[in-house]
Amino acid sequence: MKENMGALDLRLDNYDLLEIEKMEERKIMRGEFLALQNLISKKLGGKTYATIVRYTETRALSE
Fold this sequence. Notes:
- This protein has helices at 2-8, 14-44, 49-62.
- It is mainly alpha-helical and 63 residues long.
- Helix 2 packs antiparallel against helix 3.
């Protein structure tokens, strides 16, 4: 039990916290991207799907 408690005793500095926050933001962005991809696919039935996805992905990464 002591070994497990020691594993939880992390020392996180501001840099670590910022990195964790960035990972969470990327995870959220990725989830939104996948949801949008699914919506576009359903709405268009596959037509011009690749073009719109590329535009959406580029726009999301630049923001």
